[in-house]
Design a protein that fits this description.
The protein has 168 residues and is α+β, with helices and mostly antiparallel strands. The chain has helices at 23-33, 38-47, 53-71, 126-129, 135-147; strands at residues 11-19, 78-96, 102-118. The chain has a domain at 10-122: Alpha-Beta Complex (Ribosomal Protein L22, Chain A). It has 5 helices and 3 strands, in the order βαααββαα. The protein has a 3-stranded antiparallel beta sheet.
Length: 168
């Protein structure tokens, strides 16, 4: 029998493209949340005083919604396995100045990718529960169990909790 965990190493992600901020400013927030649990990440992002927190908050929330809706994962057991920020295109404009001259304005953008992984998938002992079943049968049984899990996650509202700061 091959490795039955092969089917369960599923990662769920959310991708935000052309977010209007520099990649350097977004990276200092992403470095704080990489490897943390989902609920802890939401609390950190609500309390950090940076402008980059809000788009990252929305992406983490979206990735968790993808995980619970599409895969049936429990949001309380999600962990941020990867978080990366890449530079996007730079929008260039000209600002009019005195005496008919112009001054270039550069608006950098970035692409943020948040990858979540479910840690509850590795808690099962397959030798006791599913002895004698094939890999596909085990995966189907486990997937049905994931769909019926109760989502015991508290709702985080960024506007009403007083956690939205706008500092650069």
């Amino acid at each position: 029998m091959q490795n039955p965990y092969r089917y369960r190493e599923v990662e769920v992600y959310a991708l935000g493209q052309h977010i209007s901020m520099s990649a350097h400013k977004a990276r200092r927030v992403i470095d704080q949340i990489r490897g943390r649990s989902y609920e802890e990440t939401l609390m950190i992002l609500e309390l950090m005083p940076y402008r980059a927190c809000y788009p990252i908050y929305k992406l983490v929330y979206s990735a968790a919604a993808n995980a619970s809706h599409n895969m049936g994962f429990n949001q309380a057991s999600l962990v941020i396995s990867k978080a990366e920020v890449n530079e996007g295109t730079t929008f260039k404009k000209l600002k009019p100045r005195a005496r008919g001259r112009s001054y270039p304005i550069r608006r950098p953008t970035c692409h943020i990718r948040i990858v979540l992984q479910d840690t509850s998938l590795y808690e099962y002992d397959l030798n006791e529960d599913f002895y004698g079943l094939e890999e596909d049968q085990i995966f189907c049984l486990k997937k049905a169990e994931w769909k019926n899990k109760y989502n015991d996650m508290t709702y985080h509202n960024m506007y009403n909790s007083g956690g939205l700061w706008d500092k650069k």
